[in-house]
Amino acid sequence: MMSEKAKQNILLTPGPTPVPEDVRRVMAEPIIHHRTPQYRKIFEAATASLQKVFRTKNPVYTMAGSGTSAMEASIVNFHQIGDETLVVEGGKFAERFTDLAHAFGLKPVVIKVPWSEAVDPKVIEAELQKNPNIQSVCVQLCETSTAVLNDIEAIGKITSKTQALLIVDAISGLGADKLESDAWGVDLVIAGSQKALMLPPGLSFLSVSEKAKDRMKGSNIPKFYLDIKLYEKGLKDWDSPFTPAVTLVIGLLESLRKIEKAGIENVWKRCTEYAAFTREQLQKLGLQIYSKAPSSTVTAARVPEGIDGGKLVKIMRDEKGVTLAGGQGSLKGKIIRICHMGAITKEDIQKGISVLGETLEEMKMTAKSK
Ligand SMILES: *Cc1c(COP(=O)(O)O)cnc(C)c1O
Q: Would you state the torsion angle of the CA atoms of residues 159, 176, 115, 308, taken in this order, to the nearest 10 degrees?
């Protein structure tokens, strides 16, 4: 049984995000077998709908696994051992690309970006000119740990003129921040189910351009479960190489229908509007916005001097029914993050920020009385 408290809890974290009731309901139906016309039809419709959200004509592959599986797939299928890859490192998730590159024998060339800032595309351009051996550029659309939005359109203009593949981690940003995969020349787009796509965790997605597909031929990195060739073959008759996460795919079709009904452009617009509202409300509380290039997916604000950010998040979650995210890595205890993607409503945000204001006041009072 769910406690009253858990029921009321407002989830404002950047994944998992709230799952709408109609999506939960279709996932509560009895399980079906995946090698049936019934499932194939659902998978086909979900894949077609995914392409619309990705804004691509390229195939989009669905894998059972968290978002990181598609990140790993983008490394192991499209590189050779020893390849140089340019990693834009401006946060915790960006560091994962560096870790993945090391794990599979690539040579990461790292551009360190201050954590509150977006990468300057000119720095990428200069690096690619200096080093024509670079085979790919790895960057986040929204770097969820810092709430920074990178200018993928500008980066795409640069990589399109080179041999380098543009790999974009849009695990949080897809379906919240504008992303025109084809028009902007993104070769590999990575997404996950538990963020703006309003599903439980467990699915990851990867779209593959022609330029990227070409690169697959020479890839000599060991792989098995995440071998895109197998998924490519499967997609020909709406099949998966391994048992798909049937229930989540059924939920996916339902959540994508909701996005399609609203229209993806309107969804972007709504997230941008909520993001502006969130920043405005936080500033009214006297808080400073952390990111210099704020995203429409999530907003980060600095925790006031003398307040323990970890404690703040804990009090709000355990005593007041509002779950925010704190900071990760070097930002632990220093920032709070509030999401405005997916099924999160303006009322949720409003309630969350009002509870935040109240809790901050209480903590300041306690600090004074000590
Ligand atoms: C959440 C997130 C990830 C990690 O995804 P998992 O589903 O936890 O594997 C990677 N990159 C970004 C930008 C994210 O927001």
A: -170
